[in-house]
Amino acid sequence: MTPATPPATPSATPEVPVVREMRWWDIERVLRLEVDLFPEDAWSPGMFWSELAHARGPAATRHYVVAEAGGRLVGYAGLAAVDRTADVQTIATARDHWGTGLGARLLTNLITAATSFECREVLLEVRVDNRRAQRLYERFGFEPIGIRKGYYQPGNVDALVMRLADPAAAAEPATPAASLAAPSPAPSPAPGSPASVPSSAPGPAQGSVPSSVQGTKTHG
Ligand SMILES: CC(C)(COP(=O)(O)OP(=O)(O)OC[C@H]1O[C@@H](n2cnc3c(N)ncnc32)[C@H](O)[C@@H]1OP(=O)(O)O)[C@@H](O)C(=O)NCCC(=O)NCCS
Known about the structure:
Blueprint: E1 18-21, H1 27-37, H2 45-52, E2 62-69, E3 72-82, E4 85-93, H3 102-116, E5 121-127, H4 131-139, E6 143-152, E7 157-164, H5 167-170, H6 176-181
Parallel strand pairs: 4-5
Antiparallel strand pairs: 1-2, 2-3, 3-4, 5-7, 6-7
The structure holds coenzyme A.
Coenzyme A (COA) binds at residues 37, 91-93, 97-104, 126, 130, 132-133, 135-136, 219-220.
């Protein structure tokens, strides 16, 4: 009698996501994550198409990446760079990857790209109630600089504007190609170093803050 085939043992180590440039054929899978993670104000396909239209060539002003694991798209992020100011346009990871360090890897990739664009600062907007994302940004040295009242509609939720003053100091400078092939690990600043989480973040100033790079309502 033939012995029964033993059941396949599940892989002990989950696959580490690969981060690579986002292309137009990724948009459909990105949108599936987008509507799950930003149900109130998901970007339309046209917004992603428009962003990617500026992501290649010598005059590129955008840098978009996706993360894939086991054939699944599990994260994406994008950055705009204009006049030496970068803006995190979006950053998201699949729920079952939260807390694995993927968000930090994507953010490292964007900051490295900001350095390659020779940006002197990186700005972002984040919902005032999104503490998880704010903690991620704080770990990289982003600081609150203002509030945009009612930025997120239709929920009328305010955005906290955060700024990273010196992207070159927050991520290892690398060529974009190198950073895509082998993304740098998330920085782990020593306690007390400039990039460590402040024990109590300074309260954001109300008032005027720099405008976004474009009219797009950013998700990061
Ligand atoms: C915000 C978001 C991008 C963070 O992504 P993430 O993959 O969870 O990020 P990380 O894993 O790098 O870090 C998140 C937390 O996990 C912890 N973590 C990181 N690596 C870890 C590991 N190996 N084991 C356990 N915890 C880990 C981090 O310390 C961090 O904890 P903290 O929140 O207490 O500081 C993700 O939650 C998301 O997509 N949210 C929905 C969309 C969104 O809000 N985007 C931001 C818009 S501004």
